[in-house]
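Morning F.,

Quick status update on the modeling queue. The single chain you submitted on Monday has been processed. Sequence for confirmation:
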Amino acid sequence: MKKIYAFILIILINSLELFSSLNNDIRINSDIVEFIENENQINFLHNVEISSNFVNIRAEKAIYNDISEVISISGKPSTINSNKKGNTFDGKAEEIVFYNDEKVHLIGDAIMKYNNISISSNIIIFNPRTGKISSE
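Structure tokens below.
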């Protein structure tokens, strides 16, 4: 039993380290948290809210995969907005994916508003620290 708790603690710390590039103070709230040891992942389910000094995210589900170090966030839609002064943006998409290189992908009916410019595409890629945006 101690091994399970240690494993859960390690995964949780690693998941928060992924977000640490966005902020030192990350808060994740959800109705349900599942630790799936054999898949090395943590599932945050129902009414997911992720907030930091840089971003706020709302979704129905967030999955952190410890092997790929990727957080996939989904909802109908999932929303993201900035908290950083001078770098304001709002976006929504069916799925939001955080990669460990600080890039964020908005996927599926993606819309982003950045400095009074509105962008829509099937996929929008941006860096929430710098505000750099691209689409494919």
